[in-house]
Amino acid sequence: MSSMTLVHRAVGTAHLIPARLRAALRPRDERGLSQSTEQALLVAAAIIVAGAIGIGVWNYVQSKLGGQGVTITGGP
């Protein structure tokens, strides 16, 4: 390796060190939720919506079949 190549590599490496140091010291933006927390909230919301739809269907079926002498057990 020639001496100029060695000088160029040394200068290039020395140039990258301050940039990496600045990136490491830069304050991080941690205002949002973590991905796992966001996913857990979305799953909980989906379960609530599915439960509400299920209860609505249950009540509709009960109202339509309730007057015909048919009894459905095990509901909410």
Walk me through what this model shows.
With 76 residues, the protein is mainly alpha-helical. It has one domain. The chain is built from two helices and no strands. 0% of the residues are buried. The mean pLDDT is 77.
Q: What tags apply to this protein structure?
A:
single chain, 76 residues, mainly alpha, 2 helices, rod-shaped
Question: TL;DR?
Answer:
This protein has 76 residues and is mainly α. The protein has helices at 3-25, 35-65.
The secondary-structure class comes to mainly alpha
Portion of residues in beta strands equals under 5%
Order of helices and strands: HH
Low-confidence stretches: none
Q: Determine the fraction of residues in helical runs and give it as a percent range.
A: over 70%
How many distinct helices? 2
Between the first and last Cα atoms, what is the distance in angstroms? 80 Å
Count structural domains. Answer: 1
Total count of strands: 0
Give the mean pLDDT.
77
Rg measurement, Å? 32 Å
Describe the largest sheet.
none
Shape: rod-shaped
Topology:
Layout: H1 3-25, H2 35-65
